[in-house]
Each structure stands twice: as C-alpha cells, then as structure tokens.
Amino acid sequence: MRAFDAVLFDVDGTLLHSRPGILNTFAYAFRQMGLDPAQIDCTRYLGPPLRWSFAQHFSTEAEVERAVDFYRTRYAQVGMHECSPFPGVAPMLAALRQAGLYLATATCKPVEVVTPILEEQGLLPYFDRVGGASMDASVDTKTAVIAQVLTDPRLAGRRVLMVGDRQDDLLGAADCGLPAAGVLYGYGSRAELEACGPRFLAGDCAELTAWILGRGASAARADLL
Asked: Which position among 10, 12, 165, 168 bears the catalytic label?
C-alpha cells in the first residue's frame, strides 16, 4: 500500500547532476573576491544555502552579498547550463505523476533560478509546484523552503515525503515534521544521510520509485526501462 500522497524533491544532487556548473561558478566567485579556489573545498557547498556557504569565508554581510552577486551572474550565464538529469529521473517523475502523486521541488536555489533550469532539462511539466528559496535572505534555508511549500492548500491532509541527497534536506524535513528519504547517487555520503535517520536510502531512481509506490523494486525497474 502506498504510504505517501505527495513528494518534495531537492534538485541539485537529487534530480540534476549539477556539480560541474556549481563548482565552476563557486571558483569564479571566489576568484572575483580575491580568494584562490584551489585552496577551498567547494564540494562542501553542494547543497547548503548560498549565503551560508560564502559566510564561511567572508565576515561581513556586504562581502557575502557581493560574492552572491558574482555567483548568480556567472551561474545565469553559464553554470545553469552545465547540468543534466541523473539516470532515471524523468521516468521516475512520470511514474509518480501517473500514480496520482503531487510533486514539488524544495530547493535552496531561488525559484527564479531553478524554474528555467527545470524547463531546459525537460522536467518542469512533472511538477505541481516549483518550491525554492527567495532571491533575498527571507527564505534561505531548506527548512524555510519546505515550510513555504507546505503552505500550498493542495497539500492539506496529504502524506508528504521529502527526498534529498544531503543532510540539509533530511534535517529540514525533520524540522517541518516530515519523513525523508535519501538518495545515494547524489553528493552526500551514506554516513551523512544515515546520521539523519531517513526512512529509506535509495541507490537509484528505480529503487526510490518502488519504495514510494509501495511496490517491488523489480516491477518498478521494469516500468522505468
């Protein structure tokens, strides 16, 4: 029996392999700010909010906002195009939609940034709502993003699951009273995800689909081929 009526998806590392564009753009922004990106482990920032990431290196709000501006300018021009869906993502979303589930994103990318990316990658039509951060700092954490998505009246009374690849996704779900599933093909380690107490860890999209729909993995995998 299906346990969920709606699924909220993180985007980077869960739906899209966006590492190249993100890392290249961080490197650009750090260089513009006078830092050597070769001395910085930018992989730490695959997932967390942008302002939090830059705040690890700059002490004033003005510096953080300047770095954010450099990042967003370059990302809009180049970085947003340096990504692709993980294998099986589109068939997974299609199967969940066909089963009647409500689907939304819950990403720390601003809505204005993630919407054209999803459209370019052919994923936008699968979603009932694109949930994301604000361009300013008012909705900037995964907890705040999830909480905002949950205000959608279409989710009233629904059993909602959060899916992501980093601890921010799972902890944000817990903050909002939601169960969460983790994906092991993304950018977080098994240890990172297990420490957050997920309901399920999926090795690929077929496993995730089968678990969400309460079906056998082999049947779901056949449907996705």
From this structure: 10
